[in-house]
Queue: 3 jobs
Job 1
Amino acid sequence: LPNNILEDLKLKKTEFGKISGREGNTPVMKDIFKASIDKAKKALEGKNLSEDLATDIGVSAVAFSVLKTERIKDAIFSLEQAISFDGNSSVYIQYSYVRLKSIINKAKHLLNGPCNIELLTEKEETELLILLDEFPAVLKEALAQHETFYVTRYALDLAALVNKFYNNLRVVSDNEEMTKARLALCIVSAEILAKAMTIVGV
């Protein structure tokens, strides 16, 4: 690193809790990773996806299950929860992101010209817009507190609202202007989810 950057860097000692299983025992990390990867492989059986993808999902699931807990608290690791597609896991966030990208890719031919976000007045839309606007503040707080918990919880909340949005509202419709506005909301949501996942390494 350049000297001027090194001079500005400040190290801070932080405290962390410990990881334990639901039975209260402290498992060996390599066993946790292996079990998580095996679980991911089983979940992806018959989906014609690479084994490397299962490994990535399994490893990120373990990392996320730790990072979503405040660092000074002990993390209780649950394999079933870590590989769940139903929420509170990295898999749930990744699934939400993939669904967004699928919607965007199928309708990308409709993305021409400006869109009117003032059309987004449904509850699901306004809730999503408000949360998206909070992302910079969340990052600032995470940096100030040296705490990834803020980012992981934000990503889970965003994924939940994203699912509520595209499950309750039709993104692509005969209304061209509404379609463009909702597609724009999908694009921004996908970008923020991707940034949050990158920050926490999943």
Note: The first helix runs from residue 3 to 8.
Job 2
Amino acid sequence: GARGGVGPGAACPPAERPPQAPAEESPTTVTADDLRAMIREVPDFPKPGILFYDITTLLKDKVGFAKLIDALSQCFIGHRVDLVLGIEARGFIFGPALAYRLNAGFVPVRKPKKLPAETAKWTYDLEYGQDTLEIHKDAIQPGQSVIIVDDLLATGGTALATAKLVESLNGRVESLAFIVELDFLKGRAKLQGYQVISLLTFD
């Protein structure tokens, strides 16, 4: 089943300054039921026995997408956020919208040989083999506060690699934010020591 909000001990961090009070009857108030109703469940994709959570049905809903971005941004209103990093490829959907909402810059984290200028790299282990992520070396300045965003927290390997990439450039990881968390894969455990936020968790 799905539940909204963040996991135990992972509430939104306290604001450095109090956010403005939301207007009553705000049309962008989001609930877990709102978001779940907009996510299509596709059985046996990409292979038999897998239940795939298809977010494209949420993205095409103009009210739903706005609600989603507002829900993510509420965790960071009143915090210093310099940059939002989106992980290739679905992080490119949510990252720029969140960055705009937070008045922050956006930085793409890409697969190898996709970025034109000098890059920093981080290689990490997969179940079978390895993978590498890259970011422009000048994308993050020392001490900048960074949010990492992606659509899905599964095993946590890619998210952890992105956090290490940020830290290799002396950036500060403010939080890792996800739309959906697959709780049974225990990805959150791999991200101990970081603030992890997910809007929907599937057991």
Note: Confidence is low (pLDDT under 50) at residues 21-26.
Job 3
Amino acid sequence: ADEREASKRRDFTINAMMIDAISGKVLDFYGGLADLRARILRVVDPRTFVEDSLRVYRAVQFAARFELRTEHHTLELMRSIDVSDLSCERVKAELIKFFRAPAHRYGMMLMQELGLYERVFGLRIDTRTHERLMQFIERGESFVRNEMFFLYAFLNFLGLDKDKILKNENSERKIKNEKNRKNYINRTRQCRGRRVAGCKFI
């Protein structure tokens, strides 16, 4: 009973599973294993989920880490949550996990559906441009894989002020040195106009 109640207060079903320390048995009271196999992101309990608005950003990094699509009612619930109460530091922690994730398309689609680009970067992206952006990043990551590549490719594609945004996001500390920083910028610039696997970058 205690385990079930503790699991109920978790955010998503895939994050609500436990392992019995004695028997080694997986305790899955809310269908997390089935959702993980089906690659579905689903809220455990809508009533407790809304207690922490950071869970909206956590959904993005989960989607990108595990290639998850968000269940309809979960998506609608997250759309109803005001995330303006969050501190920059808490948001940054989740965004860094998103930047490091292996499947950015899934997180990007969720950010678009939740309107988080406007919150984080101060802009709206139309559907067509967003699809081209995702393709641009996917092609680039086929030959450049680094936790900062996503952010630099994103900013370069949209022509945003990299120095200003990175300063605001305080993400420069994630780059080891200035030489690496310049290298990442140059590699993303090289993507433009290059054909990779028959696909021309914008």
Note: Residues 171-179, 192-202 have pLDDT under 50 and may be disordered.
